[in-house]
Amino acid sequence: MIHLLQGDITLFEGDAIVNAANSSLRGGGGVDGAIHKAAGPALLQECQEWVRHNGDLPTGKAMITKGGNLKARWVIHTVGPVWSSGTQDEDFLLSQCYINCLHLCVERNIRTVAFPNISTGVYGFPKTDAAEVAVASVRNFLSSSHTDLEVSFMCFDEENYTLYQKLL
Ligand code: AR6
Known about the structure:
Layout: E1 2-6, E2 16-21, H1 30-39, H2 41-54, E3 62-66, E4 74-79, H3 90-107, E5 112-115, H4 127-144, E6 150-155, H5 158-167
Parallel strand pairs: 1-6, 2-4, 2-5, 5-6
Antiparallel strand pairs: 3-4
Bound molecules: ligand AR6.
């Protein structure tokens, strides 16, 4: 089951939201900044603790923390690829972000999760390509794993929302 929503992911009322983080999990701008601001300082503390034990989170991988003051109980942090003219396996790495987040959802028995449009802001991934990768990755995952997970794409800007509308 896939839903398309437009708005601020920090207001999502479900089990988990995904954060488009950076490798050091220190917070930042864009959706990452909004999530940290809404979740409160416990989120940054948990991220820093994780990095102390595990090192930086590599591009394409995902980890999970509690949601702090958010309505969502969990935040799944993933690091999207920085767009580099398509020469650095960006499509594959972006796909890995979605797949690794979905694996965590299944492991943690998360039933509803919302994704932002990973890498399409500061990291400069072309929005059309990113939307195609996102939709294909989620569709493939849901059709090949026996799960009743509900996935929402939370588009912030009109351009992404229109792209996802066409694809879905
Ligand atoms: N809710 C949903 N989507 C949002 C929100 C929000 N509140 N705010 C922005 N977006 P970006 P990236 C959309 O730049 O490209 C950070 O500094 C936005 O319109 O947040 O993966 C991190 O720390 C865009 O479509 O993430 C990293 O350093 C999408 O979220 C770096 O930016 C992603 O934009 C990650 O860059």
